[in-house]
Design brief:
The complex is a heterodimer of chains A (383) and B (136).
Chain A: E1 4-11, H1 22-37, E2 46-50, H2 59-66, E3 72-75, H3 82-95, E4 101-109, H4 112-119, H5 124-130, H6 137-153, H7 157-171, H8 185-190, E5 193-196, E6 198-199, E7 208-217, H9 218-224, E8 229-238, H10 252-262, E9 272-274, H11 280-289, H12 298-304, H13 320-324, H14 334-343, E10 357-366, E11 371-381
Parallel strand pairs in A: 2-3, 2-4, 9-10
Antiparallel strand pairs in A: 1-7, 1-8, 4-7, 5-6, 8-11, 10-11
Helix pairs in contact in A: 7-11, 7-12
Chain B: H1 15-26, E1 30-35, E2 56-61, E3 64-73, E4 87-94, E5 99-105, E6 117-120, E7 132-134
Parallel strand pairs in B: 5-7
Antiparallel strand pairs in B: 1-2, 3-4, 3-6, 4-5, 6-7
The chains are: A alpha/beta (383), B mainly beta (136).
Chain lengths: 383, 136
């Protein structure tokens, strides 16, 4: 069977207020991705979809809508981890000969108010045991995580602010980002309290948009003339710590070693990381969990490390959800799309010099105090 | 909902949740479940044991615990909770073992911090779920 390689990516234009329907965004992202690859929609035989707001539609009804005949389909059930997981599953499916060209799509049509409405009953445990406390949505959940990390390890807001500021710098070089002004440390520190210790610039802006990635059998990819990106490994874990009502730890620490081992890659070989950034504290926790610094040492690591696209460990080089916006489940694909863009050396002014290997991380399905799904993938630009 | 308990949440559709709310309304302690097979106490109500899938029985916990994480919600996710802002959300390690998530109420709630002792609030609650007060 032909090994799988990632060949293309695409995005719809993000919107602060919903101006288009979800299917429009998904179409735009899919078309941008396929046009870039030079592949026709009729050649797509696999589709993965992650979306919080498409019910009663699903991946197969979307295929109907777009006119695609599928031999493989996956409905993302893992929230913001869905697309990283879909990438691994798609690679397995292509490797097994079950499909040849798989399109991974994710997106939603959200404003702040529609996002709030969804949070009240996002999962059964939230609906039953957190919502009636007026928990504040994901902001309240991750404020508790940040509180615990700060208490346990001394992590400061200023240290976490370095994540938000670096990502904002990256966003200024990404035309699809919704935040278009630089962010200073003073602005970050003085921002309005949302769920203390979380303040405004620790939060994503719910928005409308979609992201897409295309993974093909290598023989197909060879005919497209695009730079090829190999999926070296993907690992996933769900409900990693059943009795813990917090994402500290979240689960990546249980899969990191096997991920690097399966990819035959050392941490020192990673040129950039695209970490799930619903909040800076979760970026910090991923830096620890993947072993870029010791457990509890993310604060000093952020003090000492340039995480800009020019730096020692570039983090979320497209601006991420924190500065581009979070288009629902599309927030779980934005990092993969940016990682592919970087590895194909098409990131323009924010290009990581010589980018050859990237770690992409997913996280999602917030429930009783934590995200239930964690995943990571390592990608490498093919020689 | 002014001054009364919020029972408007769509939540009360599972029997374990309804049992939890009913028991919380009848007792000043904290309703907990214990596995009849292995003795495990899950951190929020379930249909079965999260360790061995055994059958669970209800019992009333002491309602005492220690705050292990603390956050102050200034922006609620739903307008019906705005009356109660600032809402203090906490992880609370109960005396019986489980770590639960609940709100802390009372005029002094903004003084809540990690390590503080809390007790189940017997009056002044605005949620159908059991809430806590700073002890002492």
């Amino acid at each position: 069977m032909a090994p799988p390689v990632v060949v293309s990516y695409g995005s719809s234009k993000y919107e602060k207020q919903p101006a288009h329907e979800l299917e429009w965004h998904l179409w735009q992202a899919a078309k941008a991705c396929l046009d870039r690859a030079g592949l026709s929609a009729s050649e797509v035989d696999g589709l993965a979809l992650a979306s919080f707001g498409y019910a009663p539609g699903n991946v197969v009804t979307l295929a109907e809508h777009l006119g695609m005949r599928l031999r493989w389909a996956e409905q993302g059930a893992y929230g913001g981890a869905s697309s990283v997981i879909a990438l691994g599953h798609a690679a397995d499916a292509i490797g097994a000969g079950r499909a040849r060209n798989i399109l991974i799509l994710a997106g939603d049509v959200f404003s702040v108010s529609t996002h709030d409405a969804m949070l009240d009953s996002f999962t059964p445990a939230i609906r039953d045991y957190l919502g009636p406390h007026g928990f504040g949505g994901a902001n309240g959940v991750f404020a508790l995580v940040q509180s615990k990390h700060a208490s346990r390890y001394g992590t400061t807001r200023k240290q976490l602010g370095r994540v938000a500021i670096a990502q904002r710098e990256h966003a200024l070089l990404n035309e699809n980002a919704l935040f278009r002004h630089p962010l200073t440390m003073q602005e970050y520190m003085d921002a309005r309290a949302i769920a203390e210790p979380i303040r405004l610039y620790d939060c994503v802006l719910p928005c409308s948009g979609a992201e897409a990635a295309l993974i093909c059998a290598k023989d197909v990819a060879g005919s497209l003339g695009r730079p090829m990106v190999e999926v070296l490994a993907m690992s996933e874990i769900h409900n990693a710590h059943p009795d813990n009502p917090s994402s500290l730890p979240a689960g990546w620490e249980l899969i990191a070693d096997e991920l690097f081992e399966a990819a035959r890659t050392a941490r020192e070989q990673i040129d950039l990381v695209e970490l799930y950034d619903d909040y800076p504290i979760m970026v910090a926790i991923q830096l620890e969990a993947y072993g870029f610094c010791k457990e509890g040492a993310a604060g000093p690591f952020l003090d000492a490390t340039d995480i800009s696209f020019r730096g020692e460990l570039p983090v979320n080089t497209g601006g991420g959800q924190l500065s581009c916006g979070q288009c629902g489940a599309g927030g779980g694909l934005i990092g993969l799309v940016e990682g592919i863009t970087q590895l194909q050396h098409e990131a323009g002014g924010r290009q990581v010099k010589g980018a050859g290997t990237a770690l992409i991380s997913g996280f999602g399905l917030v429930s009783y105090g934590k995200g239930l799904c964690t995943a990571g993938a390592i990608l490498r630009r093919a020689a | 909902m002014h001054g009364g308990r919020d029972t408007s949440a769509s939540s009360m559709i599972t029997s374990h949740c309804q049992d939890f709310v009913d028991r919380a309304a009848q007792d000043s302690g904290y309703p907990l479940q214990r596995c009849l097979c292995c003795g495990w106490i899950p951190n929020f109500p379930r249909v079965c044991c999260t360790r061995c899938l055994g059958e669970l029985e209800w019992f009333t916990g002491s309602g005492a615990g220690v705050i292990s994480a603390c956050a102050v919600v200034w922006r609620t996710h739903a307008k019906r909770y705005e009356l109660h802002v600032p809402i203090v959300m906490s992880h609370i390690r109960l005396a019986e073992g489980p770590e639960v998530i609940a709100s802390v109420i009372g005029d002094n709630r903004l003084t809540a911090e990690i390590g503080m002792q809390v007790m189940r609030a017997c009056s002044g609650s605005w949620s159908a779920l059991p809430q806590f007060r700073i002890a002492g």
